[in-house]
Specification:
single chain; alpha/beta; 4-stranded mixed beta sheet; 10 helices; globular
Length: 336
Amino acid sequence: MIGPMTAPGPTPHSAQGPTVHSAAHPTAHATRRVHVIGSINVDTILAMPTFPAPGTTVIATDSRQSLGGKGAGQAIAAARFGAHAGLTGSVGADAEGELARAVLNDQGVTSSLVRASSLPTGRAFVYVDSGAENEIVVDPGANSDLRALTDADREAILAADVVLTQLEAGCAIAFEAIEFAADNAVTVILNAAPARDLPAQVLERVDFLIVNEPEATALSGDADAVSAGERLAEAAGTVLVTLGARGGRLHRRGTTPQSFPALPVTPIDTTGAGDTACGVFAAAIAQGWDPSESFRVALVAGSIATTARGNAPSIPDRDRILATLPPVRGEAVRLP
């Protein structure tokens, strides 16, 4: 839940083995920089007809590995939407860590700030049922060593147009990155996942807060998702609440919420859909898109991501997203 509410803060300071798609060719958009601070995992994904009940055994219908972790997924999504994406993270000095670096590099994510830990690379065990819903258990491993920014991390933040962080690797480094970026007029996006207590003074430094419906209600203390978004917007200014197949809602302090539909799809696996949306939103903001249009395109990207299994393997590229993006009032999307 958020900490004690205070008066609104200052106005935003600136507006099988793993397989993944090949990185998009560099474009002019890649001159805009998104720096991500967050977790890196190797996911083991098990598809099954239904989740096991306590004391029962379920036979998996499919098993595979892919790169995961919120930090890695969001950085890849930003890169695939055309931003120059860098990642501060931590992996083990093991085969999984080398694999993670190789996938990140192949996807166009700068991995020079990914640290080598004495702990094993983080792992996530993802159960996906026949309805495409998932349950995830994470062993953080090397992510536990991601506690504080280095001088090189700070330099990367200063060079970025947008900083994007989450809470899967812990709050300490995320809060430090938010404060440093805000102090230096770098746009800050916080994906408050998983939901943890957030001090009001942290939310005041965030330009865009992204949460799903359960996270919004947990953070705000309000059972209703609309009220939750409104309450969070009083603290953070601009809040994006993702609603799964129902799309999303954009809340801005003092204005009427805007609702956006999801793309109608037949989902296979919802793992990584939220991370895709976050990364694409960050890239669009870095490239000068309006927040409303950025959110609309991010939700479409997240919907596309549910049509393939895994985190990184499911992330669509910029061309596919824009080709799929429905027109607004009969008009094609206006690119910056």
